UniProtKB/TrEMBL annotation:
GO terms for molecular function: phospholipid transporter activity. PANTHER family: ABC TRANSPORTER PERMEASE (PTHR30188:SF3), ABC TRANSPORTER PERMEASE PROTEIN-RELATED (PTHR30188). The chain crosses the membrane at residues 125-143, 163-181, 193-219, 267-288, 308-328, 348-369. It comes from Pseudovibrio exalbescens. Residues 1-85 form the STAS domain. This is ABC transporter permease. The lineage of its organism: Bacteria, Pseudomonadati, Pseudomonadota, Alphaproteobacteria, Hyphomicrobiales. It comes from the Bacteria.
Amino acid sequence: MAVSETENGRLLTVSGVWTILTANTAEKLIDTTVSKDAARRLVVDMKQIVQLDTAGAWLLHRLRADVEFAGGFVELKNVDPRYDVLFKEIERHNPRVVPRKPSKPSLVALFERTGELTVEIYRDALAICHILGSLALVLSWAITSPRRMRATSIAVQFDKSCIGAVPIVMLMSFLIGAIIAQQGGFYLRQFGADIFVVDLAGILVLREIGVILTAIMVAGRSGSAFTAELGSMKMREEIDALNVIGLRVTEVLILPRLLALMMSLPVLVFLANIAALFGAGLVCWWYLAIPPHAFMTQLQIAIDVETLLVGVVKAPFMALIIGLIACVEGMKVTGSAESLGQHTTMSVVKAIFLVIVVDGVFAMFFASIGV
């Protein structure tokens, strides 16, 4: 490569091999030899080029673009007809400028987003109804043919969603029970009502806190796992393969997960209640000087079996909602990792929101019937 000054401007003579193998060297030569800023007119003589491929043509095209962007002019001279098609193709595939979308007024954008969310909620409701209908159909078949229940798959999912979650659920519930007792005792002792901390902890844990916090933990743990598993299978086309060989996705993948989750959550809620009451009892003993036998006596006065059942009855319904949301979001995953992450996040958010809504509905229902 040589640069010389002429009457018509600067002359750049390129020679030799300009291919992908020499692209790194050629790029360094261009950067060190040619001053793009000072060139008003640059003539590139390509007569001595022995071999040229797309990489070499792209380097020369980029040189021309840089000089013209700086205000100069570039002329390619003595271009072999064989190489002319390369420059035309590179010019044709030059990235186009994407026009910026005009910004909409904030009120219009708000209505547009609201409409999109409404349509999305409607589609999710249709997908949930579809899964519920498929489950009802599969369960009706399973009654006549028990083998279709896939007991092994249900046992595996029960192990993952229940037995594997016991340590973290019980630890969380133990801490929550201890915090409720400590905070309740801190305020009630000012009125000489220390003993009623037992009533507060027992009723609050058994009726509301135990079930709702356990459901939130399950939504974040098992619900996200269900979405990620189904989404990964969708990305790898395993679900399409099941459809091709004539197996129902609802029967093979969704039903075992839902049944296992509906059996797991009541067990976890019961264990969470025990752990929370144990934590509350320890704090009452240490912080409020309420001995264990006094704690148990007052607890028996404050609660009964009905109090326990109010919380446990909610668990299967919350588990069904968590499982349905997780499976619907998993089936909506497309072929990218970003889509998998988005739907996993949405699965947890939607499940937690609906769990809280269902808990409120149950609270109003039990209040209306006097329970």
